[in-house]
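Dear V.,

Thank you for sending over the compound details. I've combined the ligand you provided, flavin-adenine dinucleotide, with the protein sequence from our construct and run the structure prediction for the complex. I'm sharing the raw inputs here so there's no ambiguity about protonation or stereochemistry in the SMILES, which I know was a concern on your side last time.
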Amino acid sequence: MKTIIVIGGGVGGIVTANELSSQIGGDHKIILIEKNKEHSFAPSFLWLMNGDRNEKQIRVPLKSLLKKNIEIVNATVSEIVPAEKTVKTGDKEYRYDFLVIALGADLAPEKIQGWDNSVHTFYTLEGASKLHHALNNFSGGKVALVISSMPYKCPGAPHEGAMLIEDFLKSKGIREKVEISLFTPEPQPLPVAGPELGNAVKSILDQKGIQFYPSMQLGSVDTTSKQLFFNGKEPFDYDLLIVIPPHQAPEVIRQSDFVNANGWIDVNPQTLETKHENVFAIGDIASIPLPGRWFPDKPMMLPKAGVFAHLQSDVVAKNIVRKIKGEKADEKFCADGYCMLEAGEDLAGFAYGDFFGEPHPQVHLKQIGWKWHIGKVLFEKWWLSPISLKKEFYKNLLKTGGKLIGIPVKL
Ligand SMILES: Cc1cc2nc3c(=O)[nH]c(=O)nc-3n(C[C@H](O)[C@H](O)[C@H](O)COP(=O)(O)OP(=O)(O)OC[C@H]3O[C@@H](n4cnc5c(N)ncnc54)[C@H](O)[C@@H]3O)c2cc1C
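Below is the predicted structure of the protein with flavin-adenine dinucleotide bound, written out as structure tokens.
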């Protein structure tokens, strides 16, 4: 009997453990180590921010999402020792034959000079709730939304956030009293997705009167005078500040020999294998360069997105099973990704395409409409539903919804 340990029970960890369980559960041991007992669905933080959801609606017990023959360990991983094939959590030690690292990305707002608790973010559950109250109490002025550095999770999310805030303030009847600005160090919106999507998103932002400022690297914040300082640019005054904080690998990885020069884990882009035998890294923690994309002088990375964590989990689980069975582990990851991009007014666009496309990613945007918004809601409902109900209860709902929006739903 082999032991497969999955560390991190977010999107990638959940899908990997369930996929392994479907294929070899019972015959082999599957252990999932996760520090939180509850799972929150990050894409819904945007709806928490604009009041379409409350915290309870988007947070469920982790256990409810996992198949029965997965052993769940509720602990923080403190060390990985590939030479001994062990993972440590405080004083406990677990031995593995195969290890899947799915620890995601941590937020490090404290890295922003001048940051304090008055600076908002919708990148956490608590942050999105707090921002909702702030938006409710906002009576007008300058809203600044700042992408502080790259890489960051879900390249669409800051733009979706800006559009949902615009919609929220419009429905509050104060849109004309508000100026909304989105700042980013990037040269265009979503450069990781290529020029076509970037131009499409820019034109939607323009239509909504959201000012877009590219090539703006945040230097520091003064929360007393309410000013933003961008490197080499004039200071910018704000009334409400929302920041996408810097991201970093969790401490256990930063202190390990897995970490690369950019602070993440190098993997084989097709198999997600790390430099250590039978150890894989998937999702936000993995570092995969995009062919031909540089910024400014470093290669751009495949976006940190749930859709890729999900696809990579399938590849890794299949290859582990094949290795255990003595078969050729030849399943390969290809970066065909998609995202329903929320645009406010219960409308969304559908971005899809090849992120490994050359000479740059080939990601397109389908016409904004209500169908894609419904698609995103359906996906949320499916993801958060208990594992025991997922297949039966949502089969028809998803099939109907899938037909409606023109995507064949595979369960
Ligand atoms: C506002 C927002 C909107 C988003 N919208 C989308 C979207 O529309 N589409 C999309 O594809 N993606 C979206 N994303 C991105 C998506 O949520 C992430 O890319 C995805 O969750 C990554 O999966 P992961 O498994 O790599 O990491 P995570 O899902 O973050 O899971 C990592 C897990 O590891 C655990 N962990 C960390 N350190 C330890 C430790 N030392 N010991 C034990 N456990 C540990 C964490 O608690 C966490 O549960 C969005 C993200 C945000 C913030």
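A first observation: Residues 7-13, 33-36, 42-43, 45-46, 76-77, 102-104, 122-123, 153-154, 157, 250, 252, 283-285, 304-307, 309, 339 surround flavin-adenine dinucleotide (CB under 6 Å).

Warm regards,
I. M.
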